[in-house]
Specification:
This protein is an all-beta fold.
């Protein structure tokens, strides 16, 4: 029902910052719990961060705590991932995902996915 489009990926140096956006359309954005996942070459899809419908609950993977911040603007139908102090290990395709019935950090339960945006961190 909802379509998701990621943007904001690119090439940055170690220690740099990047902000990803996930624009939603075709549904009521405020009804969806949202999350970011990433997948690096040769690795499994990995949870990055999640945010509840109103933004009151957030979770982060241990690998990004203190560096990444998830947020959402329901008036703009957009979710964000602010990434600071980037490391080469953050290099991956980043995907946004939506789920309308309950909050989760598990990729397998999410209902809708974007196409992904590439983030490359050079050393």
């Amino acid at each position: 029902q909802v379509q998701l489009v990621e943007s904001g990926g690119g090439l940055v140096q170690t220690g740099g910052s990047l902000r990803l956006s996930c624009a939603a359309s075709g549904g009521t954005f405020s009804r969806y719990h949202m999350a970011w996942f990433r997948q690096a070459p040769g690795k499994k899809r990995e949870f990055v961060a999640a945010i509840s419908r109103s933004g009151g609950r957030m979770n982060y993977a241990d690998s990004v705590k203190g560096r990444f911040t998830i947020s959402r603007d329901n008036a703009k139908n957009t979710m964000y991932l602010q990434m600071n102090s980037l490391k080469p290990e953050d290099t991956a395709v980043y995907y946004c995902a939506a789920k309308n019935d309950y909050y989760s950090t598990a990729a397998s339960v999410y209902d809708y996915w974007g196409q992904g945006t590439q983030v490359t961190v050079s050393s």
